[in-house]
Every structure is written in C-alpha cells, then in structure tokens.
Amino acid sequence: MGKLMKAELFRTKRITGFWVCVFFITLMMSVVPFINDTKAHSAQSFSMGTFDIFAILGMMVALMAAYITGRGFHHRTCMYEVMAGNSSLRIILSKCFSIALPISLVVYLPHLVGLAVACGINSEGISEVLSREPLFFLTILRMTCFGTLLTLCVRSMAGPVLVYVRLVIESLGMIVVSAITGQDLMEGGADLVTANTTNTIMNTVCLSQQGVLLAQPVDSSLVLKVVIGFAVEVLLWFVISYMIYEKKDY
Questions:
Q1: 215-245: pLDDT as tens digits
Q2: What is the mean pLDDT of the chain?
Q3: Cβ-defined contacts of 71-80 (< 8 Å, 24+)
Q4: pTM: predicted TM-score of the whole model, two decimal places
Q5: What radius of gyration, in Å, describes the C-alpha atoms of the chain?
Q6: For 110-137, what is the mean pLDDT?
Q7: Cβ neighbours of 206 (radius 10 Å)
Q8: Cα–Cα distance measured from residue 224 to residue 231, given in angstroms and rounded to the nearest whole number
C-alpha cells in the first residue's frame, strides 16, 4: 500500500489545479474571518468566523478530493492499480490516506496559523476553541473522505458533479427543515442539545455540520453527533466502493 500512496502523492503534487484550490482555500481559512462582518478580534471570534463560512469551504474541500480521485480514472491509472494485483481494500485505503487525509491536513494548517495570529491578538475563549478544534478537523476529513469514496464508486470525473449535487440538495434540505421547525440549523442559535429528533438527525447527517460546530457549549452530545456522522458517512461509502471494486470490471 505504501507504493500506491507514494505514487498517488507524486501525481497529486504535479496537478496545477490542486495547488490553485489549496491557495484559495488557504486564503479563505486564514484571512476571511479577519475581514468578514464580525471581524475576528480574538481566538474565539476567529474560530466562529471560520465555522460561519465552512459550508462553502467544505464544498470546496470535497470537490477538490473528488476531482483528484476522478483524474485517476480519467487517465486510466486506477485500471493499472487493479491489473497490478492490488486488492480492493488496499486500493481504497491508499486513496483515503493519500488523497483525503493529506487534503484535510493541507487545508487545516492555514486555519491553525490564522488561529495562532488571532490568539496573539487576544486569547479570549481559547479553551473553548481548543475543545472544538478536533471536531472541526474531523468534519473536514469527513468531507474529503466523502468526495474520494463517492468518486471511487462512480469511477469517473462525474464524481465532482455528484458531490456538488449532494451538497446542494443537502443545503436546500437544511433550509426547508429550518423553515418548518423555526430554527436555523446552520447557525449556532439552534438548540442542538435539547433539539427534537428532526434537528438531531439533520445535524448528524449534514456533511458540513455547521450548526453543530457553532453550537454552545461543547459537550458529549455535540461530540457524539460529529463522531457518529463521520463514522456512518465514511463506512457507508467505503462499503459501497469496496463492493464495486470487488467486481474489477475494467
């Protein structure tokens, strides 16, 4: 699996589009919280400013993972991985570790840099922020794993299109449910701890989990929503992609 990962990383770093996406996501992660309406003036306000725009950031991250994965099918390199005798499990895991995980780390690091700058300005709420950071990274990883695994399922450059469609439908669904329940599920005002079943399901299924990231306070219920959402999402698409790869009908 090490050779598969090394080859994938080598191909990825030679993709111009990858670095262009990284540049714009880095810009949004590290700069936007300082220039939006609320303007970051402390570690806590910077963190919340990042979560406010995460629906857009998350979409960009998922699309980038899907695009890079889809290129492997477009250029037929994935066919050779199968013909070389690599098992389905090894191929899928190598994609997750060489595409989803690196992208998550690359886009998360600028956030940490911006957070450090904000903390240097004012460390107010830093303990609250630090308790939320692992959940934030897990949500980013969920996005990249989804983009990677869905593209492995369709095995073509149609992956990014389907990722976009899924995220748009999800956003519309959140808007409809928010209108029906009278709570904005994409904002921190939604009471996620004592919320009804509909709100709980939507905030667990929602890929960006923006409402969860903005919720106060960080407790076991909030952590559980993020962890369960990540586990179910990744496991579902992993099993589907594994079943498709087992056919090896290239």
A1: 767 778 788 888 988 999 999 999 999 888 7
A2: 81
A3: 71/11, 71/15, 71/157, 72/8, 72/11, 73/151, 73/155, 73/156, 73/157, 74/156, 74/157, 77/11, 78/155, 78/250, 79/250
A4: 0.86
A5: 19
A6: 85
A7: 24
A8: 10
